[in-house]
Amino acid sequence: MTARTFITALTLAAVVGPAMASSVIHPAPTEMGYTTHPEHAEPGKSRDQVIAEMEKAKQDGLWQYHRFGAPVPVKGTAATRNEVLADLERSQKHPSWAARRVGAPVPAVPAP
């Protein structure tokens, strides 16, 4: 092992070592490849904070979506049929409509 390789390895160990010591999982030469040290975990939210957030989500009505991983519906006003048709007609007049309607990539073209 050359001196340069040794110094590089030593520097890397000095930089990475403290970062590994502050995490919960440490590498180990075992079959599993790591050991866990829960006492190294940083403090997170308290139980009261978690319960307060959960109660807020239940009151908002969003909990039913989050617990299944479903997308949360967007709150707002829906466009009327006439607004959608007007938007479609405006889009069809755009110079790149023929390429966009089939999903082709088009360069940015300013709106008319």
Question: Can you walk through the features of this model?
Answer:
- With about 110 residues, the protein is mainly α.
- It has 5 helices and 2 strands.
- A two-stranded antiparallel sheet has the order 1-2.
- A hairpin with a 6-residue loop joins strand 1 and strand 2.
- The longest helix has 19 residues.
- The termini are far apart.
- The model has no long low-confidence stretch (mean pLDDT about 80).
SS-derived structural category? mainly alpha
Strand order of the largest sheet: 1-2
**Percent of residues in beta strands:** 5-15%
The helix tally amounts to 5
Mean pLDDT, all residues? 78
Q: Which parts are unreliable, with pLDDT below 50 for 5 consecutive residues or more?
A: none
Please give the number of β-strands: 2
Q: Roughly how much helix do the residues carry, as a percent range?
A: 40-55%
* Distance between the first and last residues' Cα: 68 Å
Q: Could you state the order of secondary-structure elements as H and E?
A: HEEHHHH
**Any idea what the shape is?**
flat
Spatial extent as radius of gyration: 28 Å
**Strand count, sense and closure of the main sheet?**
2 strands, antiparallel
Topology:
Blueprint: H1 3-21, E1 25-27, E2 34-36, H2 47-60, H3 63-66, H4 81-92, H5 97-100
Antiparallel strand pairs: 1-2
Briefly, what is this?
About 45% of the residues lie in helices and about 5% in strands. The chain is mainly alpha-helical and about 110 residues long.
Core attributes:
112 residues; flat; mainly alpha; two-stranded antiparallel ribbon; 2 strands
